[in-house]
Amino acid sequence: MVISARELNRATLSRQLLLEREPLTVPDGVRRVVALQAQHPASPYLALWNRLTGFAPADLDAAFIGRSVAKATLMRITPHAVHAEDYPAFRAAMQPTLYASRLGFRFAAAGLTPADADELVPELLAFAPRPRTSAEMQAWVEERLGAEKKEGAWWGLKAYAPLHHAPTDALWSFGLRPSFVAAGTEPALTGRAVEPQALRTLILRYLAGFGPASVADVAQFAMVQRAAVREALRALDGAVEQLQGPDGGTLFDLPGASRPPAETPAPPRLMAMWDSVLLAYADRSRVIPPAYRPLVIRRNGDVLPTLLVDGHVAGVWRPVGGGIEATAFHPLPSAAWDGLAAEAQSLTTLLGEREAAVYSRYGHWWSKLPEAEARLL
Prior knowledge:
Blueprint: H1 5-15, H2 26-33, E1 36-37, H3 43-49, H4 57-66, E2 69-73, E3 79-83, H5 87-102, H6 106-109, H7 114-127, E4 132-133, H8 134-145, H9 147-160, E5 163-166, E6 179-182, H10 196-210, H11 215-222, H12 226-235, E7 241-244, E8 250-253, E9 269-270, H13 276-279, H14 293-296, E10 306-309, E11 312-320, E12 323-328, H15 334-352, E13 373-376
Helix pairs in contact: 5-9, 5-10, 8-9, 10-12, 11-12
């Protein structure tokens, strides 16, 4: 079966609840979309506002407090919000990546080895059955290893150890001074080894939320080596099917998964910074036109809040003066502007309850954008 570029786009939007908001609970919504990029504390809230009917920020607050949704360092070695029941498998699948990325560089420069990490992690988890501030964690590391090793050791351990970010009284549950708590489950610390069943679970969950996808897409999403992904997909023979993508390459998907027709309408959306739908693929052209990619994904890794029009990035937005300023990179039809205005009204109400000037620290990027039409919505 061949799938076109537009059909691929609509499949993605359908799986990500961006064709129509759905009346799901917060934990169920998070599980449906697999993982919400949580590099900025506000982004999981805005991501769910885009996807769930009647979303209330207090419901995500409660999910974080009740730990039905967990925030932790996972895919691409960045903070993500995931369903708590998905966390153990996701963490185990990420083990080789976290091992390679966090037990070298600063950790090694502090004179520590992976064997030291294997010894330290259980002790660290025993210290954090309840939330501990970053300062408390660093003090524990300093007492255990000495001041000269503190910074490098904590840099490695805070991402390598199975820790959740603990919610605080910050505007979006998490502030600039994070707290941490032991995950409560202890995925096997297997060093460089790939945990095959965990990786297969992650791939199946990824395809459910982001498929159809290539080996490279899966590897990009999780930052797992392509060889491991290929091996896992071979082991999943019968549980996944193969399609031919727009470029002739092989895509994998779950049998019977949603693939709406190409002509399915896609409503306008105001996407969060670092929204997962923008980053979950090696080939990001299914959502981001290639010409716009350097405009919305900056060289330092910042991913601007975007306008989604007809299923593709069409510009960026930011809060200004009690409204939303939308900048379009190409002319938009009046119906698109009307749809964006309705979204902006709803978003302005949501932000007014929390942080009207959300993402304001990233405003400097607007001076680097090309000349384009901007409207206050």
